[in-house]
Amino acid sequence: MLAFKITGIDFSYGARKLLKIGSLSAYFDERIGLVGPNGSGKSTLLDIIAGLADGHPGKVEAYLPISYFRQSGRPAMKPSGRMLSYFEASEGLANPSGGEETRLKLASAFTPGEGVLLLDEPTSDLDLDGIMLLREAISRWRGTVVLVTHDAALMSETCDRVISIQDASLSDFRGGYEEWTAYERSVKESAARRYEEYLAERRRLLEASRQMMARAHSVKETPSRMGRSEARLHRRSAGKISEKLARGAKAVISRLERLERVPRPMPDRELAMAFRRPSVDLPRFIVSVNDLNLEVPGKPLLDGASFDLPTGTKTCLLGPNGCGKTTLVKLLVDRERGPVGKGIKLGTMSQDLTELDGESSALANCVAGGSLSDQSARTVLARLGIRGDMAFTPVGMMSGGERMKVALARLMLSDVDMLLLDEPTNHMDIESACALSEVLSAWPGTLLMVSHDRALIDAVSDRILIWEGTSLRCYEGNWSDYEQSKLMSDETVMRLASDLARAEEAYKATEKGDGITSIP
């Protein structure tokens, strides 16, 4: 028996696409666990099912009555005496605790006893006894249950279907929560292997084509002291080599063009859930710069440069030493002169890490001034290598690299919409740099990063902003995408065609016994 069906949902908050659902149906007696990172749209989806969300073009069809336990607000209906007694709840308390309020709202939500039951974080402030009562009540409910909870044990014990929200899309798994986590782990491991193999093959082809093109272009001219016969032999040999290299480079470029693109794996769910989602009312472009002139005494850096940073993207700023990257970052941070809107919260780090309290622990530094839990902070610190009891070590007793990790964790856990990072892998070893790339990939806000770490740029960035003279040019993709775009450029292809034509001409000339022909 169909319980409800939703179709054609397309829901956005500001510039951020929250949910795009073609069709979703649920049936009588199903127990559905709804999972996804913080801010991914779980509560919004429950509101849509309950008919409480406007602003989407979709259709919602409910075939059973709906009862809804919401995170905020008062009980939706008067609870029955039976449910008040079951949940040991009381009405009319003058100053109820958080747990007492939750019990009263649960008594209200479970009063109908049948239909579609929507539960949005129903374990909030509940003690263990309350959670056991909730588990039993879910098992007795006559109808369909959709559960959002951070309590993995409760979801494992009650759910027989898992719907995951990731990047506005749904994936539907017919099985329990533990089966789903095992499946997700295997899928992520397989995706990570395929992506690494794809990157390795792409880098190999890029390097092979570069080397072949360079050698084809630099075949030496005929030495002036050679006799006519020796020169003809040299030209013949050089022509064959140059032609072979140019054709080889062309073949490799063709293989690059045909190489099947493998998408970057999604960030780890636990890590993604540790972060606060950015504001929902951000503009489409978090930074928009037009005709920017930038200079230091005696040296122009940018002349009429224009660029945009779309909200939610991760951009790497590249350029030679001394071109002005750090100067541009300082301008963006400057709230008086910079182009970033006043309502946008920026996060950056000082070179001396003065924002850290040396006498407080790494964990205390990360949660200071924020609203995220200690568990979120410990998850991020652990991914950056600050594990176990080390999280309680005073920052003043840590090495420079460890303090850098704490500062980065603190910054990403704070309430900011955009990060500006200048060479964040300085003082880090390879393992730590790899860990940072994982954490930055999972962070959900907008990033502008200055780095020369190609592995980090490949793993994190989806846009390259590169200094070219006194202007800036944007390329979509990571470092390998940028290198491939240069390789596929008209100028490079024309040079390769010229090398190939010259090589063929020189080789044909030697076959005919013509006069001396040099190969540039």
Walk me through the topology.
Blueprint: E1 2-13, E2 16-27, E3 31-35, H1 42-49, E4 59-62, E5 66-69, H2 81-86, H3 98-110, E6 114-120, H4 128-140, E7 142-148, H5 152-158, E8 161-166, E9 169-173, H6 177-217, H7 228-258, H8 269-273, E10 285-296, E11 299-310, E12 314-318, H9 325-333, E13 346-348, H10 362-367, H11 374-383, H12 400-413, E14 418-422, H13 430-442, E15 446-450, H14 454-460, E16 463-468, E17 471-476, H15 479-487, H16 490-512
Parallel strand pairs: 3-7, 3-8, 5-6, 6-7, 12-15, 12-16, 13-14, 14-15
Antiparallel strand pairs: 1-2, 1-4, 8-9, 10-11, 16-17
Give the tags:
single chain; 520 residues; alpha/beta; Rossmann fold; 3 domains; 6-stranded mixed β-sheet; 17 strands; 41% helix; globular; disordered C terminus
Structure characterization notes:
- Mean pLDDT is 82; it is low at 513-520.
- The strands form four sheets. Strands 5-6-7-3-8-9 form a six-stranded mixed beta sheet, with helices on both faces.
- By secondary structure, the protein is of the alpha/beta class.
- The chain is built from 16 helices and 17 strands.
